[in-house]
């Protein structure tokens, strides 16, 4: 392909004139369709390459303008020379061998790039198209990578050998140099276990998969994914707000500073979505128009982007969490105004930074929750718990978002709900005393998806740590 261009400044809608054989029109029609659908180039016409010389000159001169682009297919030097000599418009020349069914989008992109020189609208469409293709490639690469035999064998080995991290087999040596004379006491949560090390805490993220208020399965490497994803984001955002991380001595372990947590979860949302009772979409569906202090306009649609980032805090209460406005947080005594202002700004700034980084990885950071607290020694407000993990955050795939929304479809994501759905379909998970064992292939697929999300989010290859759970205690002791 050869290109001859002339610099233009007009912003009129581009006009594309394609010279081709009749046998090539079907393929070029697909190019025309791609130009319209992907790049907003709709003024496309066809001319025959067998046009008589007498007619060619008048066709070129009458069609020539600052916003015209000529496309010539095949070895037609006379047409190309005529356009170059008689027209101010650029000309693209493709060989006949380039006119293939699978090359239509590539040809359309090249034509659109030339059109973009005279049309900001087309230029914007080209930029979005290129970004979308890049995002799609990133996602496909991560998916393919984690489906490799090596990854599958690592996951299967841990599952078959029952090497998942349960939290039940962590032991500490009596020769520990820890400040505590006795072995640290384990305080177990749904997914994380906590060990008091005196002036610090050890947080162990297990492979437990919870749902329906009970444990459903042990998912290989899930804990490592969550712990290392948080560690990645904590390091990436420490220029915005300090965090509680002291060290990460093991894939499943973070040693952290002791902090007094605020009794508020700082939920940041960029889209109108969600299915839980505290979500913005569920509340909006139920007629709520003032949500956490934000006035919501009529006509919002599910999964659409909000006009700005919204901080929608919830309380952390025994019975159930509830959405709460900033004014009520202060008036009800949950936090002081000064502390809330610091946390609110940090939450919005960290989320905006996370969105930017995620988009570079082909992902949309849709919403997330943050927890913050005060360092017990210094009183410094810092980020605690976890950050931007697949469990605390919602991610969508960026490359397909706009197209799917325009078709009324749900945004594409790396689904992790299929295991919950299996239990719902095969038992009564809320009332049965004993739950059936989840199929191995489902648990292993869930593990692969967690690992895949880790690689998508961090752009790092996952390093499988298959050490027995007993080594966790040693790692904690070495770190202190």
From TrEMBL:
Residues 187-433 form the SAICAR synthetase/ADE2 N-terminal domain. It comes from the Eukaryota. Its EC number is 6.3.2.6. InterPro entries: SAICAR_synt/ADE2_N (IPR028923), SAICAR_synthetase_CS (IPR018236). Pathway: Purine metabolism; IMP biosynthesis via de novo pathway; 5-amino-1-(5-phospho-D-ribosyl)imidazole-4-carboxamide from 5-amino-1-(5-phospho-D-ribosyl)imidazole-4-carboxylate: step 1/2. The keyword Nucleotide-binding applies. GO terms for molecular function: ATP binding; phosphoribosylaminoimidazolesuccinocarboxamide synthase activity. Keywords: ATP-binding, Ligase, Nucleotide-binding, Purine biosynthesis. NCBIfam families: PRK12607.1 (NF009251). This is phosphoribosylaminoimidazolesuccinocarboxamide synthase. GO terms for cellular component: cytoplasm. GO terms for biological process: 'de novo' IMP biosynthetic process.
